[in-house]
Write a structure and sequence with these properties.
The protein has seven helices and 23 strands. The protein is elongated.
């Protein structure tokens, strides 16, 4: 039987119901899961050309390259063992790392590794322990040169010092050393940055330091930081930042003294000189953009302390302070006409000078710039 003209029952029109929170979650969670799955799938598609794969067969770096680099470089890397006599008591013993730079037995390391040593021994990859002699040091640059008999290094290929001015962030960085006396350990990372300026043991910035995320720990100090060619771009120094209350405890950022600094100082260090960098006798901070805008100061170095006596105090330099709502004190804006905006800038310029040299400072004082000359002293030990 066929019925025509029949219309199903339609309820009265009402406003559409508003979704509840539970309804929204019910709809959104499946959509979110689908989005994550789609993103993961796309990630695998686009990551595959970069070496990643879903079966875990990808690699972040060329393992064969790193293995070959280690096998070539490790024989030139040594563990340095130091001891200090204590008038009949058990001697203090410490260790660090270093690396061979020529066929004559010269070894580069950090100054802080050997600074208090009465006896020095180096351990080679073949297990031999050989007495070493300390030659020159530079505490301001945390560098030292040791010497062993040339006959002890026959057949060992020394490491080449690279041109550290060519180092770029993102490059491969490989450290070899003896962290916690774990001889010839290798860690790998990248160059995280260049032109850094952490302070040496003398509280003086070391210009142009190389920052790396390759793990550096106590005992790595003095060992090489290598590039992908196996050349030394720097001398590793483990720097630890203090615990800031984070549950992960201390974080470490690795720095290396650049190889060009080593090359510049090498003749003096090999001759046995204890290098003393120039000293003015000031402490200061950078004039930031915010400080410049707020106080009307030029970019430069605001003096926070003038040591007495020092070349700075003799020249009449004055620490910055506020007296009766008025700013008093000095901001150094240039040295010999070369602009400086940070302590790192100043130290970098002064490294081209020697104690006894005369320099001229451009100083912003009382809302005007004046010129002040002074004679550099050696940096105090």
């Amino acid at each position: 039987m066929e019925f025509r003209g029949y219309e199903p029952y339609q309820p009265p029109a009402e406003a559409p119901a508003q979704p509840t929170a539970s309804t929204t979650r019910t709809i959104l969670w499946p959509m979110l899961a689908m989005g994550i799955a789609a993103g993961f799938a796309l990630g695998l598609i686009f990551a595959s050309p970069l070496g990643w794969s879903s079966n875990g067969g990808g690699s972040l770096y060329d393992e064969d390259l790193v293995t070959e680099l280690f096998e070539q470089a490790a024989p030139a890397v040594v563990e340095i063992n130091v001891s200090r006599d204590r008038a009949g008591r058990i001697p203090v013993v410490g260790s660090g790392s270093g690396f061979l730079i020529d066929a004559e037995g010269h070894i580069i390391t950090n100054q802080h590794v050997v600074s208090v040593a009465d006896d020095l021994y180096v351990r080679f990859a073949d297990g031999r322990e050989v007495a070493a002699k300390r030659l020159g040091t530079s505490a301001a640059d945390d560098l030292a040169v040791l010497k062993v008999d040339a006959a002890e290094v026959q057949g060992i290929e020394p490491l080449v010092l690279a041109d550290s001015s060519d180092v770029r962030a993102g490059e491969l960085a490989v450290a070899i050393g003896s962290p916690f006396r774990q001889f010839n350990s290798i860690t790998i990372g990248i160059v995280s940055g260049t032109g850094r300026g952490p302070a040496s043991i003398l509280r003086r910035p070391i210009p142009d330091m190389i920052q790396t995320d390759a793990a550096l720990n106590p005992g790595n100090s003095g060992g090489p930081l290598l590039n992908a060619e196996g050349d030394a771009i720097g001398v590793a120094s483990a720097v630890r930042t203090p615990d800031m209350g984070n549950s992960l405890a201390d974080f470490r950022i690795g720095f290396a003294v650049p190889s060009n600094t080593v090359r510049d100082l090498l003749p003096r260090l090999m001759s046995g000189e204890d290098v003393r960098r120039p000293w003015i006798g000031i402490a200061g901070g950078d004039v930031t953009k915010e400080l410049s805008d707020a106080r009307g100061l030029p970019r430069g170095i605001m003096l926070t302390q003038v040591v007495v006596p020092s070349p700075a105090s003799l020249a009449g330099l004055d620490a910055f302070r506020t007296v009766s709502a008025q700013d008093r004190g000095d901001v150094i804006t240039a040295i010999d006409g070369t602009p400086v905006e940070s302590m790192e800038d100043m130290v970098s310029y002064l490294n081209g000078k020697a104690p006894g040299d005369e320099i001229e400072l451009s100083v912003f004082r009382d809302r005007k710039t004046i010129e002040i000359s002074l004679i550099l002293d050696p940096w105090p030990n």
